[in-house]
Amino acid sequence: MLDDIIKDLALQNCFTEIDKAEWHKLSHAFAKEPDELKRTVFIRALSAHSGVPIVQVQAAFASLNNNFLSRAEQEQIHTRLQKAQGTTTLKINDFQQHQIFKNMDLDSLSISRAQWNTLITRFEQQHRAHVTQSFFLSTLSAIKKTSVDNLNAALSREQPARKSKRKHPEDKEISSKRVFHPYREDFGVNPLIFQSLTKNLDLEDKLEATGVRVVPPLSPATPERGYPIVKQTPGGTKVRPVFTTARCTLFTHLTPIKCRVNIQDVSQEQIAENLPRLRIGRAEPVKYIANLESILERSGMVRRQTQRAVAGASAADVFRAHGIAIIPAHSRFKHWAHLIAHFLAEPQDILTKDPEQEVINLIPSTAEANYNTLEAIELFIKDKLMDEITDQIHIHVQPIYSEERLIPDSLVYTLDWIECDLNGEYEKHNEVFFINPQSHFRLTKSMHQSIALLREAGDIASSTEMDADEHNANNLMRIKP
User: Fold this and answer.
1) Average pLDDT of the residues in 57-76
2) pTM to 2 decimals?
3) In whole angstroms, what is the distance from residue 130 CA to residue 111 CA?
4) Neighbours of 241 (CB within 10 A)
5) Full set of structural domains in the chain with CATH
């Protein structure tokens, strides 16, 4: 029954709100459902459609199913629900007033109210001022799980006037240039290297198709400053890990000096002298358990202070204090990067080894390293949770420093989570990502494709390992003492 209600909600107009009588019916249907998982999915679907926070829906249902609730109390609950819905409806209406939608037939895209809410949430999370076509189509394609080409085709079918414009060669030339690419395009070879430990020809072929070089097992190499783990190829080239999952690792060459900032050794006294207003020091290892509820609650939440205000200095100033010459126009290429993304958590929710210690969630970073963290880690976490593939993801971030520097040599991200497959079986997942905050190395489209292939292979390996663990456990249970 709850499944049917969810399907009906998806078919409704984006401005359709749930009225008082419907809230009562929905609360009773919720109370009658014995399956806790279905109840959870139902609450999330109602929240996504109505715009009412999950916690508020849960509290409202608990109250509406109370037989001793007075009529006045019921009215208060309904008023709060309708107020939250009304706010959401206004946000959708305001969002659709952006210039890009003026000549677009939105009906042809069949965007549900929940999908509009998700679009707006992601727009706000990225702190955008205007809706661009690339953002709209790429985000909608991810939400609807369809390709950008399919969305463009739907718009073209419903807009014959646009087809007539394509008769003009100059318009055709312009449109051919507006190809959306979600990641940085490749300007050379894919530098990633895959260490072949077990023969998996299918995976190796797929990786090679993205430009990855497959090599025999790597040998240990002498560590170098700035790189906590170093291996050596059969040809003697030193490489560092980029990404590891299910015992499979992608490596790349050590970043050349010309492709990273040449940080100088400075003392804490020198830093304090150059940056007297700097309020933060080195970041310690942090932990956080990310979940969908926290993402939804923080969606659209504007930072109360800029990173510069929190830190007391710009990230570019910190690089300058380490001997890096940066002209004012290039200051924007140095960022204060979050260890745990702003849209995932407040600093007070992040855990450290010493609970009494102030949490430092910011580190100075190059723009490229910050984008790598966003694209390869933070958006991956968000998509996993938004798509309800898992309930929570355990995040551990370890900054690694040299000497007395305030700019880390490396950030080691470790992610752990459990997924439930279509057969109801649970799968353990683990992956490790290495980010170099001093490097101008930027992951490109082909590299992201390589990482996605390894993640897919990791999903299969995790399922196999879980099956093996269960088999071994069953065998142990059969052994008599």
Assistant:
1) 86
2) 0.60
3) 19
4) 22
5) 1-97 (no CATH), 103-154 (no CATH), 257-440 (3.40.570)
